[in-house]
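Technical annex B. To support the medicinal chemistry partners, we prepared a structural model of the target in complex with flavin-adenine dinucleotide, based solely on the information shown next.
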Amino acid sequence: MPRSLVRRVSDRYIAGTTIADAVRVVRELNAAEKMATLDVLGEEATSRRETLEIVRAYHDVFEAIEREGLDSNVSIKLTALGLNLAYELCRANLFKVVRHAAESGNFVRIDMEDSTTTSDTLELYRELRGEGHDNVGIVLQAALRRSIRDIHALQPLRPNVRLVKGIYLEPPLIAFQGFEEIQESFVRCLRELHQAGSYVAIATHDEHLLTEGKRLVAERGLTPEQYEFQMLLGVRELAANRLVRDGHRLRIYVPFGEHWYQYSLRRLQENPKIAGYVASDTMSRLFGADGRR
Ligand SMILES: Cc1cc2nc3c(=O)[nH]c(=O)nc-3n(C[C@H](O)[C@H](O)[C@H](O)COP(=O)(O)OP(=O)(O)OC[C@H]3O[C@@H](n4cnc5c(N)ncnc54)[C@H](O)[C@@H]3O)c2cc1C
């Protein structure tokens, strides 16, 4: 796919290539009372050297957040830290990033990738918590059948969880396939996480799940500091503004970096639905339809 086309598709969803771009976007979000989580774009690492570059890049991000006084934490992918090269390498890198974060009072969200990485990701999270690192959270995917069991198994840790539907295409044996089935699982997981006393980041743009999320936090009597909503940069901005206006805390996922092309292409290949979103979004912009934005 031509770079120019991919760039056009991804432009709204990526802050830019440099840390200065990321700082500018986060500053704008903060001014609009939105928090951020910065993601340094990195594809699956193929060498130890690449993983060290990512560790370094996150170090620079923590420095920038502190220096600029930004309201942002970070999100990180374990394959960029070498999960598919060697567990021990990834472990060492992840501990470094989490320690850097702690030095400036920051927080690391470990993104969840495809199902081949789920068990190792959760194991690394347990290891971190086992060694007293509390400035770290995970992501659970409602599409995966195992997530409800993972919630029960993790309960003693009261994990800080970002709950998502799950972006990866997974087989029926391990993942719900139907739209409504996944919505039901999302609500079930959210209830169980609340039951477990977890802090939950409700990460969705789905109108039904936004409504359910708001209903469940109200039902439990949670104050705005006890949960947050999360959305992706450039997606459903009107709905995002509504959440903020209604007094909910909202964090925006802000990817940036040199690897925007590989990142965007992979997302498009992994889930062609994204291309559909972009197309329908462009159409509604062209024809002025508000739709569900
Ligand atoms: C902050 C955040 C972090 C995430 N982290 C992870 C993760 O670590 N692992 C993981 O597997 N998944 C992650 N996801 C992706 C998630 O799993 C879903 O694939 C994605 O959010 C779409 O599901 P939805 O709940 O928004 O509902 P959908 O029904 O898919 O989307 C609702 C509407 O939102 C709009 N929309 C949704 N996504 C996009 C998009 N990408 N571009 C343009 N429009 C869009 C469309 O208008 C769509 O109709 C994350 C999502 C968010 C918001």
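Notes passed to the chemistry partners:
The CA atoms of residues 37 and 238 lie 19 Å apart.
The radius of gyration is 18 Å.
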